[in-house]
Design a protein that fits this description.
The complex is a heterodimer. Chain A is α+β, with helices and mostly antiparallel strands. Chain A has 18 helices and 22 strands. Among the domains of chain A are: about 250 residues, no CATH class; about 90 residues, no CATH class. Chain B is α/β, with parallel strands linked by helices. Chain B has a nine-stranded mixed beta sheet, with no helix packed on it. Chain B has an eight-stranded mixed beta sheet with strand order 4-7-10-13-16-19-22-23. The chains are: A alpha+beta, B alpha/beta. Chain B: One of its GO terms (biological process) is mitotic spindle organization. Chain B: It is found in: Cytoplasm, Cytoskeleton.
């Protein structure tokens, strides 16, 4: 479901340190209470694990990210996850024509392409502008033009639209949809194959504020001046803005009004406030007699079609229902809810759907939330995929890769048949209680050598106690260098390769405690000895709630694998109420499940602490000693997903 | 102009002996018995069949005039005769008919009914592809399907047994037409998945009065009289051109390789 084994996740330090504090390094783990699922099944050494990161805790799962999704702030010297950054829009552009739209235009015109880019209203595929000239035989080389969908074969002829020229189709379309909107909109509700349009055109309204609201007259007939959706929205907007300004500007004496009525106006608040704040209150009192005060205008609703009022025809719904029930509509003739989302609200049938201008996209720069340092800044041009600044975490923290070491015959693991059969253990079916060795390679991408200290709880937290030993917890990684330097200097790259693979040595190589397994120019490999724990078969009735929480957290992480969006809220403390919709399943999970979901997944929390000396490019409050070379330190937890333990 | 001779049918594995019977316009080949049964082929002289097209089966296969069959298309006639109309394009690696199941690969060509690998269709079912049909690459058409004229079966779509696809219809990529399903004329089957995610829509053929919401007000009424059928006509014109080009490409390369 998530990544294939083996994988690596890195826990962003922001979980335990919401406010960036570069002086403090990660030594204590997040709040224990929240990071532990309430009942530990076999809590053998709970006290010792006080400080350890628990990848199984529901809360921890929300902070785990694949390393490539993380950024790094050079000012804070800290890993930044998507929750530690703010985003700013650099430019808006159409993904289909790659034309940039100024943000002012986005504000006024909306975030859709103003040119020729449309997507199909039926299936959302991009529409192509194509001509009809060679078929229709219109003679001139510039035939009428249509938008056509290459996928579902929808064309604008399906809705009876064609264009005179192949450019600026957005304008042409909006002219068509807006120009004679009145007639068309009257047909929308009165004239759906019903003879109401003569009535509608014959009817005329009295324009003025004294027209009573709709209770008086039956709204059977449509105004001839009824507006299209866009125009109606504009009319309503103008109307209410006007109302706001009128009602809030007119009263200057709050006490002269009838307060009961005055409260219904948004200007009432102003009036009440001015009652307390205005220094001219007494003057106003004296100067104005009560009878001369005008009644403040109350905010009213739109009453005419020109103000944006739209009365539904009394038989409008009947007409729609009849149309739905008719044979030529059918299920296929109805617009789905997905199709209707971006259409006018009254579009119910597929014939009512208009081609949608393509949604614009943005390029965004990202800043550190705490120091406002820019972490990512793309090129402004939509055509360019380059970045001016991009501080991804993987160029600072070591790239961690793990892979199982081939089981050597001399290592004494001879009990299992599968292990002997397979040279490397199957990560999806790790044998319980059979030690395996895992090569953990850290590759340095910085141009400074790094000293790394690894730490891990000797027994993994969680129900399945897996023993983990890092044979060489402290080691150095060489500095990264230029690729060309390496190519020129590398005398025997083949040797490196062979030794690194660990297979070609004919199993002579035995992992020794305290020694690195292998070492290259900018990488170092150490060995982890892992004894997968034994899974207990439980009836599954014990901790359904915890199970649920874990599922939620897992889901969150899996979802993050797919999308880099990290905006998950921390909602899964066990003491608090479970997320909505999950409290019901407590009893339903009493089926004899062998284990909790993903309980068999072997995830090893590893604490990484790197130290290196770097040049002090910027002011650094934590600078110790030397003016030029500064000792840097970075520490974080990572989680190694090794495999799945077999039952 | 040696096109008729170059349009020889080319059964895939060349190790098999063929008998060529030349008629005026049609070439009939009855293959001798071998491990894989050769179907009796009737290929129109103006059809273009690539070298690596697989013909297998026991029932006759006929290919109409002007039809282009891309390389590595698989045409099986174990379950019954297979007829492909005129002006079709059969895409690369598409599969028409069903290959026998592995259990019944030991086929006896003389008794076709027993050789059909599918136990559920022991009787002879005819698979028909009408004229001007496009079968895109990797599409699968099962035996008994009837694909009417000018239909499109997009890539990786599946037409199950006994299904009928109406003329001018389109089965979009990856869509399935269920067994014995019926797709009416001028229908587009699109969407994802086999049943639930799949949607259908009717293509317009006639003149459409702009609907209410659309309100093509600036278009004069006489201008609106463009029939939706025009689009399909244009597509068929393009299809025709594509076939002409393909004849040069597939046919030309086939000729070159033969010499």
């Amino acid at each position: 479901m998530s990544r294939p084994f083996p994988y690596t996740y890195i826990s962003c330090p922001c979980v335990e340190r919401p406010v960036s504090d570069p002086s403090r390094k990660k030594e204590t783990s997040p709040r224990k209470g929240s990071s532990q699922p309430a009942p530990e099944i076999n809590d053998n050494d709970d006290e010792e694990e006080e400080k350890d990161f628990d990848p199984r805790s529901p809360r921890a799962n929300f902070s785990l990210y694949p390393p490539e999704q993380l950024l790094y702030c050079e000012d804070c010297h800290q890993i930044k996850c998507p929750r530690c950054i703010t985003e700013e829009i650099v430019c808006w552009y159409c993904p289909s024509c790659l034309f940039e739209t100024p943000s002012s235009m986005v504000r006024s015109e909306g975030n859709r392409c103003a040119r020729n880019c449309f997507s199909c209203p039926i299936c959302t595929a991009p529409l192509a502008v194509s001509t009809l000239e060679n078929v229709s035989g219109s003679g001139s080389q510039q035939g009428p033009w249509v938008l056509s969908c290459g996928y579902c074969m929808w064309t604008t002829l399906d809705i009876g639209i064609k264009f005179d020229k192949p450019t600026n189709i957005r304008n042409q379309l909006s002219k068509m949809t807006e120009s004679s909107r009145g007639r068309q909109m009257s047909r929308a509700y009165g004239d759906l194959k019903s003879p109401l349009s003569p009535l509608a055109t014959a009817y005329s309204t009295v324009d003025g504020p004294e027209v009573p609201p709709d209770d008086g007259k039956p709204p059977a007939d449509e105004d001839p001046a009824v507006l299209g959706p866009d125009a109606r929205f504009a009319a309503l907007k103008a109307f209410y803005r006007n109302q706001l300004s009128e009602t809030s500007a007119s009263p200057n004496d709050p006490l002269g009004t009838d307060f009961g009525a005055g409260f219904s106006s948004p200007g009432a608040l102003n009036r009440i406030m001015s009652l307390y704040t205005s220094s001219t209150l007494s003057g106003l009192y004296g100067g104005n007699s009560k009878k001369s005060k005008p009644k403040p205008l109350m905010m009213r609703e739109a009453q005419t079609a020109s103000e944006g009022l739209k009365l539904a025809a009394s038989d409008a719904e009947d007409t729609i229902i009849q149309r739905m029930a008719s044979d030529d509509c059918g299920w296929e003739g109805l617009a789905s809810s997905e199709q209707r989302v971006f259409q006018f609200p009254e579009a119910r049938f597929v014939e009512d759907l208009l081609p949608l201008p393509t949604l614009l996209r943005t390029k965004r720069s990202k800043r550190c939330k705490s120091c406002k340092h820019i972490l990512v800044k793309p090129e402004f041009k939509p055509q360019s995929t380059r970045f001016r600044i991009r501080l991804i975490a993987l160029s600072y923290i070591p790239l961690t890769t793990i892979r199982p070491l081939a089981v050597s015959p001399s290592s004494g693991v001879t009990s299992s048949t599968t292990l002997l059969a397979a040279p490397t253990p199957d990560l999806n079916a790790l044998q319980p209680l059979q030690p395996i060795q895992i090569l953990l390679t850290l590759k340095n991408h910085m141009f400074d050598p790094v000293r790394v200290t690894l730490g891990t709880p000797s027994v993994t937290p969680g129900a399945v106690a897996t023993k983990v030993t890092i044979l060489c917890p402290q080691f150095d990684i060489g500095a990264n260098s230029d690729v060309w330097d390496e190519a020129l200097q590398a005398s025997n790259p083949a040797d490196q390769r062979s030794s690194r693979s660990g297979l070609t040595g004919g199993y002579e190589k035995v992992a020794e405690a305290g020694k690195v397994w292998d070492k290259g120019r900018n990488w170092t490999t150490v060995v982890l000895e892992v004894v997968p724990g034994l899974l207990e078969r439980k009836t599954g009735t014990l901790n359904t709630k915890e199970k649920k929480d874990e599922e939620d957290a897992k889901d969150a992480r899996h979802a993050r694998d797919a999308t880099s969006d990290g905006g998950w809220s921390d909602s899964d403390e066990n003491e608090t109420t479970p997320p909505p919709g999950h409290g019901l399943g407590l009893e339903t999970q009493s089926s004899p499940a062998p284990a909790q979901p993903d309980e068999d997944v072997l995830e090893i929390p590893v604490f990484v602490r790197m130290e290196w000396d770097s040049e002090n490019q910027m002011e650094q409050p934590v600078a110790k000693g030397k003016p030029e070379m500064v000792k840097r330190e970075l520490a974080y937890w990572m989680v190694l997903g090794v495999g799945r333990i077999e039952y | 102009m040696d096109k008729p001779s170059s349009q020889h049918l080319k059964p895939p594995s060349s190790a098999i002996h063929h008998h060529h019977h030349h008629h005026h316009h049609q070439q009939r080949v009855s293959s001798s018995s071998s491990a894989t049964p050769r179907p009796p082929l009737t290929v129109h002289a103006s059809a273009t069949v690539a070298d690596t097209v697989v013909f297998q089966g026991t029932h006759p296969i006929s290919i109409g005039a002007g039809t282009v069959i891309h390389p590595r298309a698989k045409l099986y006639s174990y379950d019954g005769p297979l007829s492909i109309g005129e002006g079709c394009i059969i895409g690369e690696k598409s599969s028409i008919g069903a290959s026998p199941t592995p259990t019944s690969t030991t086929t006896t060509p003389t008794t076709p009914t027993t050789t059909s690998g599918s136990s559920e269709a022991p009787s002879i079912v005819k698979t028909r592809i009408s004229n001007a049909v496009t079968i895109a690459p990797l599409a699968i058409v099962f035996p008994g399907a009837y694909i009417h004229s000018a239909a499109i079966v997009e890539s990786s779509a599946t037409i199950h047994r006994g299904a009928s696809v109406g003329s001018h219809s389109k089965i979009c990529g990856g869509c399935h037409v269920p067994p014995n399903g019926n797709i009416p004329d001028w229908t587009v089957v699109w969407g994802v998945g086999s049943n639930s995610g799949q949607r259908r829509r009717k293509r317009t053929t006639g003149k459409i009065v702009p609907s209410a919401v659309v309100a093509a007000g600036s278009v004069t009424p006489q201008q609106q009289g463009v029939e939706g059928r025009l689009i399909e006509d244009a597509r068929l014109v393009v299809l025709q051109r594509e076939r002409e080009t393909l004849v040069h490409m597939i046919g030309g390369s086939a000729t070159a390789r033969r010499r």
